[in-house]
Amino acid sequence: MQQRIRLSPIAFFCLALAAPRAAAQPCTILANAVVGPTLISSAISQPNRSAVAYNPTAGLYYTVDAGNNGFEIDTHNGSYTLVNSIAGGFDYRGCWWNEGTNQLEGNGYANSGIFVQALQGGTQYPTGTGAVILAAAQPDVQSVAAFDPDANEIVYYYSNAIYRYTRATNALLGTVPITGLPLGSLNWTSVAFIGCAGHEIGIYDYTNRRVLFINKSTGAYVGSCQLPASAPQRDAFGMSYSNGIFWLYDISSVPYIWRGYYVVDSNVGIAETAAMTIDLFPNPAGEMVNVAITGAVAYTVYDMLGRTVRSGPVLGGASSFPLDVRDLVGGTYAIEAASATEAMRRMFVVAH
Questions:
Q1: Scanning 19, 93, 140, 334, which has its CA 20 to 30 A from the CA of 300?
Q2: Vertex 345, ends 344 and 350: CA angle to 5°?
Q3: Contact (Cβ atoms closer than 8 angstroms) between residue 165 and residue 171
């Protein structure tokens, strides 16, 4: 599967705009996560930052603190640079971009309800004001919601079950018990809506540092993605998913940092164009990967820690070449092709 990522002109190799999707898409769970971007929080951000939302129209990331309506809501641009920070005006838990309403929404503590954050007309930065649009309904006072745009539902994880609420009225639609989970300790407040067909939901096993995937309809555990040993161990809050990236909040040093990881190989949540392609075979590969790229000017190969292991030009906008992987450690890698305005990333596996 391929990931296409639209870039701002000033952020040549950085992820940015994403397009809404109409339904859950097929994708493959990565055995091992690929390290992605980071979002460095404002100096006065709190340890319990709880959610990351992505505005595909403006190419902005919004992150919120849980605990007080005076805590900051940070805004980062498509280059992952902090561009604005303001008191949020709401005691957030979950936060998401509603692609149907083009609004920044979120759920709050206890009986706070569902809140819409007002945005500045030009910059799309938060104003710190807004309105509660739906009365509270959630499984726990600390629950951190995620949004399912495919079904127009607000979803939660709580006490080994998935809770589903309609976005129209915030009424409970049903509860699905989770079955078959491996041993581990789970982040008890938070849930990720991944959006992949058959494994739509993600929860975090913080002791083993792995994302566990759940079938939304049946509640069955269907697989996992192992994160690096350096991934933050968040037992509550500090976990989110947006723009195709699984986020964990690192409070081991100041300033605090959201660390991003790619946990599925898919085009879910990523803007697609027909101008750029990457074809790879064989995959997995032991010695050589045959690469064919069109619509790009350069390529870069990253390892699971985000380090560059190969790079080169794509002359004339198209190139076919064998990529020697004999000296690479076995595992998952990402090859990214880029033009002046967009990039596309595809995962491959080295298996000697």
A1: 19
A2: 150
A3: yes
Instruction: For the chain, count helices (H), then strands (E).
Output: 0, 28
Tens digit of each residue's pLDDT (9 = 90 or more) over 119-167: 999 999 999 999 999 999 999 999 999 999 999 999 999 999 999 999 9
| Nearest by Cα to 21 from 176, 202, 147 | 147
What is the SS3 string spanning 134-169?
ECCCCCCCCCCCEEECCCCEEEEEECCEEEEEECCC
Bond into 182 cis (ω within 30):
no
Stated pTM of the model: 0.76
Question: For residue 329, what is the DSSP state?
Answer: P
DSSP 229: T
- Each residue's pLDDT tens digit, 8-22: 332 322 332 233 344
Residues in the chain: 352
Q: Give the model's confidence band at 283: pLDDT under 50 very low, under 70 low, under 90 confident, else very high.
A: confident
Tokens of residue 245, six digits? 């990236």
* Geometric angle at alpha carbon 112, from 109 and 114, rounded to 5°: 105
pLDDT above 90 for 67: yes
d(C-alpha 270, C-alpha 43), whole Å: 30
Angle among Cα 183, 226, 279 to the nearest 5 degrees reads 145
Would you say 157 and 193 are in contact if contact means Cβ atoms under 8 Å apart?
A: no
| Amino acid identity, position 265 | D
